[in-house]
C-alpha cells in the first residue's frame, strides 16, 4: 500500500506515516488518545507526518523554536512558528500527503517553558485536503534520492488545538495549566530510540540488496583474461572482487543479527519501562544510537563499493544501486545525524568507564569494559578462532574508551571546563564509540552463529562469514590492535592470510548466501541482480524504455544542435 502510493503518486509518500507518525501515537498517547487516533492511523483513515525537525534545528531538539502555549481560558494549546528558522522542514509526507502531524514544540504553560513535547495537529481538511486555517504547507524541493517522498515544510500561525491534543502518556498539562512531570524528560524522545533501532534492519536489508545485486552480476559478468588464451572468467573469480563484496556480504549478515538483538532489547527494556523501571533506558539509547550510526555508515559505504564493483552498469539506474545508495545515505542523516548519535554512545561509555573505575561491576553491552585487562598479554594468537577475534575487538574498544576518557580527565585536570574537554577529545571519543559498537557487532555475530538453530553445514558457512567479517575488521584497523602490543605484526599477517583463505572458502557459497536473503526481483528492482541472470537482454529492454528514445531525433536537435552545427559549419 505504502509503496504503491509512493510510486503512483510520484510526489507523495506515506513511509513516515508508518515508521514515525503511527509509532509515536502508540508510544506517547494515553489509552484515551489511542482510542481516538490509533485505529484511524492504522487503517489509514488519516495520514500523518512526524514534524520535529525545523529549518534551523534538527539535531538539537532542545533548541526547537515552534511553541505550544497553553491557554487555560479556552483549554487549548496555541501552536506557533515564531521565526523563519522555526519552520518545520524535512518531515516526510508533510508537503502534500499528510493531513495530520505530530508536532514537536516547546511547551509553555503559566509563563514557564517545559521543553519539547509532542502535539497532534490536523494540518489539512479531511474534505478537500486544503491546508487548515493558519497552516502553511509545501514540499522542500528535489533531494539526492527518495524524490517519491514529499519531504515538506510547515508553518503555524497561532493555530489552536484542544488540550487533549498534547500526547500525554508521560507528561501532562491539567485543565488549569498545571504541568505534571514525566518519569524521565527523555521519554518524549522514545520514538526516536525505536526508529533508530529499526534503521539497523533497514541497513541490513539495504546491504543485503546491494550484495545480492553485485554478487549475482559478478557471476554473470565475464571480463578480461586471467590466463592467456583462456575464456574470460566470471569477475567473481578475481580475489579483488571477492575482497570488495564478501566483507559487505558478511556485514549484511552481521547487521541482520544485530537488528535481532536490538529488537529484542527494545522490547524487553520498554516492557520494563511500562512497569516504571527506567533503568534500561540509558543503555537502550546508547545502543540504538551507536548501532544506527555504525550500520548506516558502513552500509552507505558498502553499497557504493558494490556499485563500483559492477563497473559502468553499476552506475546506471538499471542496477538499482544508485537509488539504494541514496536511501542509505539518507539514513546516515535522518533520525539523528550519525556523528551526533555516536557521540551519544561515547557519552554513555565515558560514564560507564568512570563507574567501573569507581569499582562498579558493569553489565550489558559494556560489561567487557571492566573485564578487559589494560596490559596486553602478547603472544601468538590463533587468528582463526572466533573467541580470539572477539577478545581482540573488546580489548581494542576498552583501550580506546579508556584512552579517550583519560584524555578528557587530563584536559579537565589542566583546568578545562568539562564541555571544552569533551569537545577537544570528541574525535577520540567518536573512534572509541565506533570501536565499541564494532566489538558488539562482532561478539553478537559470533554468539549468533554458535547458537542459531541451523544445520551444521549452514553453521560452518556462517562461521566462515563471521571469521571473514572479523578478520576484515582487524586488517582494516590494524593500527588499533597493534598500538599497545595486544596483537603483533605476526598476528596481523596471520589475520591477512586467514582472510584470503576465507574469501576462497566463501566463494562457492556466495550465490547461495545472497539467495538466502530471498529478495524478490520486484524488491531488488535491478536488471543486474535478476534472479534469472538474464542481464543483457533486460538491460537493452530497460534502455529502450528511456524517455529519450521516444523519438529517433530528439526535439533538442532542432532547437539547439542543428542551428549550432549550421553556424559552426558556416564559419569553416
Ligand atoms: C539503508 C537504506 C535503505 C533504503 C531506505 C529507504 C529510503 C530511505 C529514505 C528516506 C526515509 C528515511 C526515514 C526518515 C525517518 C527520519 C525521521 C526523523 O529524522 S525524525 C527527527 C529525528 N531527529 C533526531 O533524531 C534528533 C537528534 N537529536 C537528539 O536526539 C537529541 O537532541 C540529542 C540526543 C542529540 C541531545 O539531546 P539532549 O540535548 O536533550 O540530551 P543531552 O544533553 O545530549 O544528554 C542528556 C541526557 O539525556 C540522555 N538522552 C538523550 N537522548 C535520549 C534518548 N532518546 N533516550 C534516552 N536518553 C536520552 C543522554 O544519554 C544524557 O544522559 P546522561 O545525562 O548522560 O545520563
Ligand atoms: C531523508 C530524510 C528524511 C527526514 N525525515 C524527517 C522526518 O520525517 N521528520 C523529522 O522531524 N525530520 C526528518 N528529517 C530531518 C533529520 O532528522 C535531520 O536532518 C537530522 O536530525 C539532522 O539534523 P540537521 O539536519 O539539523 O543537521 P545538523 O544537526 O545541523 O548537522 C550538521 C552538522 O553539524 C554537526 N553537529 C550538530 N550537532 C553537533 C554536536 N553536538 N557535536 C558535533 N557535531 C554536531 C553534525 O554532525 C553535522 O555534521 C529527515 C532528514 C532526511 C535527510
TrEMBL record:
Family annotation (InterPro entries): ACOX_C_alpha1, Acyl-CoA_ox_N, Acyl-CoA_Oxase/DH_mid-dom_sf, Acyl-CoA_oxidase, Acyl-CoA_oxidase_C, AcylCo_DH-like_C, AcylCoA_DH/ox_N_sf, AcylCoA_DH/oxidase_NM_dom_sf
Keywords: FAD, Fatty acid metabolism, Flavoprotein, Lipid metabolism, Oxidoreductase, Peroxisome
SUPFAM superfamilies associated with the record: Acyl-CoA dehydrogenase C-terminal domain-like, Acyl-CoA dehydrogenase NM domain-like
Reactions this protein catalyses: (5Z,8Z,11Z,14Z,17Z)-eicosapentaenoyl-CoA + O2 = (2E,5Z,8Z,11Z,14Z,17Z)-eicosahexaenoyl-CoA + H2O2; glutaryl-CoA + O2 = (2E)-glutaconyl-CoA + H2O2; octanoyl-CoA + O2 = (2E)-octenoyl-CoA + H2O2; octadecanoyl-CoA + O2 = (2E)-octadecenoyl-CoA + H2O2
Cofactors, names only: FAD
Ranges where the Acyl-CoA oxidase C-alpha1 domain occurs: 189-350
Species this chain originates from: Branchiostoma floridae (Florida lancelet)
Localization of this protein: Peroxisome
Any one biological process term the GO annotation gives: very long-chain fatty acid metabolic process
Domain Acyl-CoA oxidase C-terminal: 386-566
Pfam families listed in its UniProt record: ACOX (PF01756), ACOX_C_alpha1 (PF22924), Acyl-CoA_ox_N (PF14749)
GO cellular component: peroxisome
Catalytic residues of the enzyme: 335 (proton acceptor)
Gene it is expressed from: LOC118422279
Entry annotated with the keyword Isomerase: no
Domain spans labelled Acyl-coenzyme A oxidase N-terminal: 7-46
Residues noted as binding FAD in the record, renumbered to the chain: 53, 92
Protein's UniProt keywords contain Lipid metabolism: yes
Pathway field: Lipid metabolism; peroxisomal fatty acid beta-oxidation
Identification of the protein by name: Acyl-coenzyme A oxidase
GO MF: acyl-CoA oxidase activity; FAD binding; fatty acid binding; flavin adenine dinucleotide binding
Entry's family note: Belongs to the acyl-CoA oxidase family.
